[in-house]
Every structure is written in C-alpha cells, then in structure tokens.
Amino acid sequence: AQSVTQPDIHITVSEGASLELRCNYSYGATPYLFWYVQSPGQGLQLLLKYFSGDTLVQGIKGFEAEFKRSQSSFNLRKPSVHWSDAAEYFCAVGINNAGNMLTFGGGTRLMVKP
Amino acid sequence: EPEVTQTPSHQVTQMGQEVILRCVPISNHLYFYWYRQILGQKVEFLVSFYNNEISEKSEIFDDQFSVERPDGSNFTLKIRSTKLEDSAMYFCASRDQGNQPQHFGDGTRLSIL
User: Among B48, B57, B105, whose Cβ lies nearest the Cβ of A100?
Assistant: First the structure.
C-alpha cells in the first residue's frame, strides 16, 4: 500500500523568505502526486498536481513542486512567502486504480513571521 | 469557478443517532469521494463512488456507513448509528474523468455527543 510522509510538522519562515516543504512517498510505480492547502476552517484547495511529463510543475499562488523519482520525493517550493500563505499543507498520492483514492501525508503547518 | 458544496457546515448529533451528510459535487464530474479528518490526524479515505456504485472503500467504511447519489446532483454519506469516534471533519470530493485531480468541499464538522 502507498504511504506519504511529511517530515516537518511545523515550519516557521519570515515573510519574503523562500520555502520548501518536504514530501516523501512510498509506492511501487509512478504515482499521481498532489499538494493541497487548508486554511483554518476551510476545505482542501488544490495547489498543484503531477501526473506525468515535466517533473517540475507549477501551481497556483506562485508555488511549484519537483518530482524526483530517485528520491521518491515531491517537495513544494515558493521563492518568497507571503503572510497569507500561513496554512496547513498536505501532500497526497493517488494511484491509477478503480477508485483513485488519495493517501495523504500528515500535513505541515506553515507559520509566517512578519 | 465551480465548487463542491457541503451541508451542513457543522452537525451535532447524539451518539446512536443516524446522520446524513450532504454534498453537491461539481456538475460534470463523474467520480465522487468521502474522506474524514479526525482532529489532529491525517485526512483518511473512506469511499469512492462511480457509475452509481462503490468502486473502492477503506476499512473505516464498515456496515454503519453508506453512500448514495439519490438524484443527479447530490451525493450523501449516511452513518447509521453514530459513535463518539465518528467525530471528525468529513470532506466530499469529486473529479472529472481522465487524469484529473479531486476537488474538495469545505467539509462538515460532525460532533457526536
């Protein structure tokens, strides 16, 4: 069965600083990979997705992520963080089966210092 | 942009009572999902639904749970006899056919007393 690990439970960065959130997955084949963001009291908003092709994917709000097969990773990056980026970020893995269920990591809570 | 909508936003129910959580998926989507997130824990898959039948379900989705698409727009999750441990945020999601991502609603917070 597939699994997802987000090693960092909390991260604090200063506004304007760069950000990298780590995600590692375990799956026998190439998975579908996603990053979602959850603001307090809100649902899960899709930031970006990887299905195939170019391993560097661009998403909304200036985020990007890079799929590295050799490291089983799909880290999320942003060059300059804004205070409004403070939220919880979830990495998820999907597989191409009948249900296409998603398996989520535990999430990383991002705090932004002024 | 089309959204997945869930009602109610917060449901408080006595233990042992039945509860129905409602979702309106994005109108042209064909695949439907329920997930739950117990406070402080991971988002967990419950069930997927396609072509009017369950296509996959997790161990959590036992006989107390059922899903239904009663008409062309709604997708419901029923918990027959709620337990304290059913307290969680329940998310509905839908997606289009092909390699498309799942889009999530804002969730229903279920509190069992």
Answer: B48
